[in-house]
Specification:
The protein is built from 1 helix and 4 strands; from the N terminus they run E-E-E-E-H. By secondary structure, the chain is of the alpha+beta class. The longest helix is centred in the last third of the chain and has 19 residues.
């Protein structure tokens, strides 16, 4: 059971892009290097901007802390993902009319 809940973390530089225009509204974080984020992992961007005015695009460099999930966190994240996915499968064959 040793190490089942153990979480490790490290800091990495990243690029944050936020855009709010009539064509798009998005926020993206791109971590430097070839870092793969898996189920249950967390990424915390330090001093991340939270607002951009309409019609503007903001690109900034920041530092992010990546927290790797322990084994139990990975299992829980996968289970919750499957559970939420199955909710999308729920289909009703009723006419939709209330009688």
């Amino acid at each position: 059971m040793f190490g089942l809940g153990k979480r490790t973390s490290f800091d990495v530089p990243c690029t944050v892009e936020i855009e709010q225009t009539s064509e798009t509204l998005h926020a993206h974080v791109v971590l430097d290097g070839d870092i793969e984020i898996g189920p249950g992992d967390e990424v915390l961007v330090h001093d991340a901007p939270t607002h951009v005015d309409f019609g503007e695009r903001l690109v900034v460099r920041r530092t992010a802390t990546v927290v790797r999930a322990g084994l139990l966190d990975k299992i829980r994240a996968r289970f919750e993902g499957y559970r939420e996915l199955t909710e999308l499968y729920e289909v009703s064959f009723s006419t939709g009319r209330v009688q």
